[in-house]
């Protein structure tokens, strides 16, 4: 604890996200020691009150709570491996984007070195950090979460998923899967109308309204998946959809644009219909994805 009762924290990585995390900590009065590979990137947070460590070893020695927010897990290892002896007795919180397997590997590695490990998946872009719109999935050591809680609260909401370090990246990547699926549809819609000279901003209100109207899929499909019954509450069966879906690609071809973002769904639908599930709902393709 600092003299003001605020937890001192070390932050490794001062990219866009690391800098936002440091700024949130400083704004809440937490003493921060920061390190970045490219030293010039630390000037901004130094001006706001952070202590800048010139080596990783120095940064690890400064505080018990250490947050890493680097590009990927390889860069976390590149940074921490040579200074690994300094991890003993540390509470390592890794907010770098990665996979469940990478998080579990890093948790076991940190534990062997005498550190407690908490993994995190940040569900926000840097300007959202420190606002109520931001939240972070955490999983791994509940003890680390407890000790660092005051500092972590400065970033946004805390959503702790359990002791398995792989859960935070799993949930993070599941939300990103949903997001990218949406983005794919939006990009394809703009591509198609754009091929006829329609401005994206003109079409945007129609697209927004339509996507909002189709939102019921999210909860309806969740119920069908949990019950395993894809015949329940079917509003448009998959046989009908599989027959109409090729028109999306044909229209794109006629208009001289690509439909490659959508192509994989056609094959899933066709296989599901061929297997005798034509009367069911689209979400039944999950049975193929589950393998
Ligand atoms: P940036 O590209 O802005 O920063 C990358 C950081 O990683 C820099 O500090 C960079 O150091 C460091 N770095 C990269 N490679 C190495 C290496 N080999 N050795 C040492 N340091 C290295 O990324 P962000 O800050 O935006 O993202 C950080 C993490 O947060 C990522 O995992 C990202 O996926 C995640 N995230 C980002 C979001 C965003 O919207 N920005 C949203 C949610 C999560 P240097 O300055 O020396 O290059």
From TrEMBL:
SUPFAM superfamilies: NAD(P)-binding Rossmann-fold domains. Residues 9-156 form the 6-phosphogluconate dehydrogenase NADP-binding domain. Keywords: Oxidoreductase. Gene3D superfamilies: N-(1-d-carboxylethyl)-l-norvaline Dehydrogenase, domain 2 (1.10.1040.10), NAD(P)-binding Rossmann-like Domain (3.40.50.720). InterPro entries: 6PGD_dom2, 6PGDH_NADP-bd, HIBADH-related, HIBADH-related_NP60_sf, NAD(P)-bd_dom_sf, RedAm-like_C. Belongs to the HIBADH-related family. This is Dehydrogenase. It comes from Amycolatopsis oliviviridis.
